[in-house]
Write a sequence for this structure.
């Protein structure tokens, strides 16, 4: 069956460090992968999209990599700040089916 | 541009009742998806509509249904509520396939 795993439920890091979150998938061949941020009581907010033919994508302090051989995406937040504390979700498209499969998320806490 | 609007924000129902949730997508977005989010299961796909047509449905019982109107607004209905239906129900709109999702803040449903 199709499955997405995000490396850990929770991750605590010190302010200023780089946070690295992992998304692994099996039994998929996604055309692209997305990362979202979700704050408590709110809906997810889109952050970045990376296509299967792209190795890396950057946006300000955010960087995403996509390795289709390893079936893995890494999401990095550099120079992390307490305001980055949230749950981060990865999502895969399932081409032609009009639905996304979401990982269960990693709850990131940046300590001041 | 207004975001995705979901009403009501909170809802408390008892077992056996039915409920209707509403979603107004971003203007110009013709695709509307619904997701159920629970602490244990994460985001689970319910269904997707495009121009009033349901294009896909997730693995939920027939008690869960939805529809989309000609103005792209969407409703979902859950009949014969069960305790396990307690969840955050999220609506997302997009321009179409392979596009990022814009989520509403969700409807928090509690079934007592």
């Amino acid at each position: 069956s199709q499955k997405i795993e995000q490396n850990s439920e929770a991750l605590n890091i010190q302010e200023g460090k780089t946070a690295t979150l992992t998304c692994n998938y099996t039994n998929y061949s996604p055309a692209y992968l997305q990362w979202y941020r979700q704050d408590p009581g709110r809906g997810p907010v889109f952050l970045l999209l990376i296509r299967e033919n792209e190795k890396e994508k950057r946006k300000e302090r955010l960087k995403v990599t996509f390795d289709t051989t390893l079936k893995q995406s890494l999401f990095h937040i550099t120079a992390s700040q307490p305001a980055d504390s949230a749950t981060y979700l990865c999502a895969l498209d399932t081409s032609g089916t009009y639905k996304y499969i979401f990982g269960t998320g990693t709850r990131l806490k940046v300590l001041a | 541009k207004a975001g995705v609007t979901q009403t009501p924000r909170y809802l408390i129902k008892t077992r056996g009742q039915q409920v209707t949730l509403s979603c107004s997508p971003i203007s110009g977005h013709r695709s509307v998806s619904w997701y159920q989010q629970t602490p244990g299961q994460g985001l689970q796909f319910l269904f997707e509509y495009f121009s009033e047509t349901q294009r896909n449905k997730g693995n939920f019982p027939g008690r869960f249904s939805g529809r989309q109107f000609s103005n792209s607004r969407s409703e979902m209905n859950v009949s014969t509520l069960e305790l396990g239906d307690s969840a955050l129900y999220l609506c997302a709109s997009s321009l179409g396939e392979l596009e990022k999702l814009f989520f509403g803040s969700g409807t928090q449903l509690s079934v007592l």
In short: The interface with chain A takes residues 4, 31, 33, 35, 41-43, 45, 48, 50, 55-56, 58, 90, 92, 97-98, 100-106, 108 of chain B (CB under 8 Å).
